[in-house]
Amino acid sequence: MYAAATESLIKQAREIKEEELQRFCGRIFKQLHTKDVSGDTVDSLQRLSLIVSATKYARELPSDLVMKLQTVLRSSSCPEQLQVLSSSIIRESSPPSVHSLCSDPSHDSRTFSYVASVVLTQAGNKEDVMPLCHHLLKSLESRLSDGQISRHTLPILSKMITAYPEILTDDQVNLVSRKLVDWLRYASMQQGASMSSGGFFSGPRTRQPAPLTEVDGVVVGNFFTVLCVGQSYTEDQWMNMYTFSMIKSWLLTYDTDGTTNTESDDRSEVDSSVMSMVSATSSSSRLLPPKERLREKAFEYCQRLIEQSDRKALKKTDTELQKACIIESVSIMDIICGEDPSYVYRAFPCIKALYGRLNGDLTYARALLPIAQFYLNHSETAAVDSEAVFCQLFSHCPAEQFNEPLLAFEFVQFCLLNASVLQDRVANYRQSFPNLLKFLAWNSSGLIEEFVELLPSLIAPDTAIELLHTILDLPCLAAALDLQQRSACYHASDRTTWDQQGAKVAACLDAFRQPLYRGLFLYILRPEAGTGDTIDRLKMLHEILADMAESPRVVRCAQVVPVLLQVYFNTVTQKADEKMMNQMLLVLLERNSLLYNIKTFNVEVQKVFSTHLQALCRLHPPLIVDQSREILEFASSPANIYSKEDFYTHVVWVIGEYLSVSYDPRCTVELITSFFESLEAVLFEITQVRQSASPPSFSPRLITVLMTTLAKLATRSQDLIPRVSLCLSKMRTFARSAPVMACYSEEDTEEIITRAHELINLLKLPNVAQFVLAPSAGGDSPRWHRDTNASLPQGMRAVSGLLHRHSSFLPT
């Protein structure tokens, strides 16, 4: 969130009127024509930069001001602050003509970089960038005395090829590749020259260049890399660093047509070791085409970086740089091996040794991801077993580093990128969903979009039900992870520190450390699936964690559960068999009353349950008979109405819709009668009219659904029609009673009375009622609604005619 003052400034910038903006631009135009740039000019440009960047749409500035800003931007004699502000304003305003900016590119490196940033932002197609591209390539070929232009060339070139990869011809790609090889491999080995003051009485003098050192202080004995340390650097050393930073994107863009053709693949399969030996020699390397030579030198560079990363750094910043270089080096080697499989046999010894060194060191957890990617891509080529790598990756990283946001994001991205391969080749991928969901439980707001995409790949037939329970318990997992973190930070003996967490959290921390509840927390924090779908003492766990229900992390986690449930059910219902559907229905009936008590969480989850209960029964109607005992037990309890009315209403609806012999021949008269009697008793209990009765706490919709379901069941066992008619005849008395009138609106009471009248009239014609209230399984086909020769429209017309002719059918 912005500070109040900042928000006020942004609001003012967004609300400025067009006339006021034009006047303000006119004042700036006059200020820019003065000889001396004052602070007022800088302040005005800063305000204009805020105005044009505060809105989503581009502001249109006066053409004369835009031309003046372009002049300032292209003038190397202007102060850099003015160039920065001019570049920012032009980028955010309506696109000017980029051709005028590229017409005569400046040879000043600073000015050229600012102009290039505007051109790349405003360019609409490749032709707009072509003059800039020609100037960049020309600067690469030239050997200017100051050398400054080249340092700004590579970042601009990298951004350009990312936006327009087809802008370079093959000859130009070869030119750049040769330059990259020179910078990457042949940078100087001495530090850059630095100026010394020379003392008080003498002028400045140039120090003799000192040798570069490794991160551990040893003098460099091999070629220069980004891990070589010095007080200052030469221009070619800076170009070496820039080259390494862009080599990955360059290889991905322009190295796809190197040696990865059929001939080279066959050659590598026949004698890959011989090819590796030949390509490793310097003489043969110089004879390679530019793209292949760049690949060779990049591979050697990455191998050297991995060797350097094993040194003990003297500074913490160098240690972090070593980690970053490992990640980038392994990724580049992975790309090279993908383009030329002969490199796989040279790379694997290095990658194996690196994994053996980093495995078990949590500070290098992020570096394990590119190593795992390398194994995933090339282990089959090299006939290397990768099971141990992925077992370590999925079992330890999420469990021990779930609270590292960057690792969490990169880990989930790795799974998304390789989901199909992981499902087929990594046995413990789907078994590790309890661990993977720890990332989401801790970083729910930041990873929900990724997990919506990832979740379908985690669903397997043998663990689908356990995954459903785990999703429902996700807020409990968030609370348990929070307690685990707090417990690791504070000792049980330090009661003062514990109490500072708050009385509620302190009580939960006490419970977390008690042996009595250890089994509950071990299950909820389990690293992999297979120990059981859920636990018997789930209600006890909810009670233990009750004081954590208002924790912001737990609340945010609870908000993502309904979204995940939608994805889960939409995926499972497409491929679930009869057994799994029966299991899911039982979970819906069981877990709707076993949810972590968080505000609005239960209501939102039950809405999802209600929707997918209908979907399950529509896909497999025999579910009602298969689980008749559990459904009957649920529906016969009026207590379920008051705590979970929406889900209860849907259960009653599916009973009336699918409990029919037309869907399942096992649906006997006895079964229909048992359901009828249970629902009849529920309707009688909740609609009793007593003087002391309190207003109903349920909606009129529940009453109408109960009445309709009873009528449907009666048409399938017509001996029940008198009983349901008697029950329906009492609805007017119920709807007109004082407690109901005080609670329901006039429209609600009329709805109940009208539905009761319609059902009574329909039941007076049992055969017609059976046809209308209980259509066959194919009754939802569009043909029933279009074909006038079909029996359903005829039946509806017959019923309408009878009801209109015999007004005595209508009860008074």
Distance from first to last alpha carbon: 64 Å
Give the overall shape, derived from the CA principal axes. elongated
Number of strands: 2
Structural class by SSE content: mainly alpha
Strand content: under 5%
Helix proportion of residues, in percent? Answer: 55-70%
Which sequence of strands runs across the widest sheet?
1-2
Mean pLDDT: 84
Query: How is the main sheet built?
Result: 2 strands, antiparallel
Name the features.
812 residues; mainly alpha; two-stranded antiparallel sheet; 44 helices; Adaptor related protein complex 5 subunit zeta 1
Overview of this structure, please?
The chain is an all-alpha fold and 812 residues long. Residues 258-283, 782-792 and 807-812 have low confidence and may be disordered. Strands 1-2 form a two-stranded antiparallel sheet. α21 packs antiparallel against α22 (444-458), α35 (645-658) packs parallel to α37 (700-716) and α37 runs parallel beside α41 (746-763).
Task: Write a compact overview of the structure shown.
The chain has 812 residues and is an all-alpha fold.
